[in-house]
Amino acid sequence: MNDDTGAQRPQRNIQRFGRRTMLRGAALGAAAPLIPAAASATTASAPTSSALTSSPTTASDEAGRAAPAAGSASFRWLGTSGWRIDVDDRTVLFDPYITRFKTGLFDGAFNPGTKLEFDPDLVREHIGRPEIVLVSHSHWDHIADVPYIAKTTGARIVGTETTFHLLVAFGVDPEQISVVKGGEVLDFGGITVEVVSSLHSRNKRHSYFAPGTLNAPPAAAPRSIGDLPEGDTLAFQVTAGSAGPSAFLMGASDFAERAVQGLTPDLAMIAVPSSTATSRYVPRLLRALGRPGVVVPVHWDNFEEPLSKLPRHDPAMDLDGFATQVHQETPTTRIVIPDYRTTFGGDMRPRTL
Ligand SMILES: [Zn+2]
């Protein structure tokens, strides 16, 4: 998760993104530096943030690198920090959390004793036939559906030692899990996965929910969300083929600056912070990444609403402020606000199927 309890959630009413009408086709001109894919059919308020109305630029301008070719890769947001990436007929999942059960987190009554659950039919609907599943950390909103996916698809799971022990406790075959630390560059023959040592996000008290690591399986299979410690956090850079695109994938809104330096992804899926506890998060990250041409904010949605609905903006996440900071640091970067229903091409432009 990207925050700790509902108690820390401000009651501010930030709805500009959620309620703006940005008709997808109309927003797709190359001149738009920010492309919200989410469309609301019922409201019509003009964008107000300076980041959203800036002068026409494209991702190939001088400050950002050239926009990647669409290639054969496609990207589907699974909500929270999750992605389904398809490269030709091969599928990679990152932090797939599809079941999205209620914990009280968004109602001001967070219950760490909430029982884990998963919805097999719903999960199957979204995952395709994954070959690789990358897990950033072991909080429930990243790992809760992974045991089912691992057991039913046989996919290779890549994650921390803590993720390994938890999945084994859930009954996943240990041979199916690759433990990584950060620094590994894994060659899957046409898909390259670089593992990046990373950090978990912090709330305004500079702490976070359920820290801790496991060096051995827990005594019993985890039953509640409080049984799933963070277990250190990873980021990943996935590169399709030799020409890309390459996508930097985050599961939480902090990072190890020197581990990120020089990655230069085409696309950066960046977790929106829930506090200002991490100093200069956005500019430091963008510079370390080499000012990617496309930034896709993630982990800003209410992850207890079903994926069948439009994303609901978590009011704790200052998405407008995030976009403004990105724009200030790299004015030519294209910011793409994803939704749950769009398949994006390798350039993060909606793909017509
Ligand atoms: Zn977390």
From TrEMBL:
Metallo-beta-lactamase domain residues: 79-299
Record Pfam families: Lactamase_B_3
CDD domains recorded: metallo-hydrolase-like_MBL-fold (cd06262)
Annotated segments matching region Disordered: 43-66
Gene Ontology MF term list: hydrolase activity
Keywords: Hydrolase
Superkingdom, natural source: Bacteria
InterPro entries hit by this protein: Metallo-B-lactamas, RibonucZ/Hydroxyglut_hydro, TAT_signal, UPF0173_UPF0282_UlaG_hydrolase
Keyword Hydrolase belongs to the record: yes
Identification of the protein by name: MBL fold metallo-hydrolase
Organism listed in the record: Streptomyces mesophilus
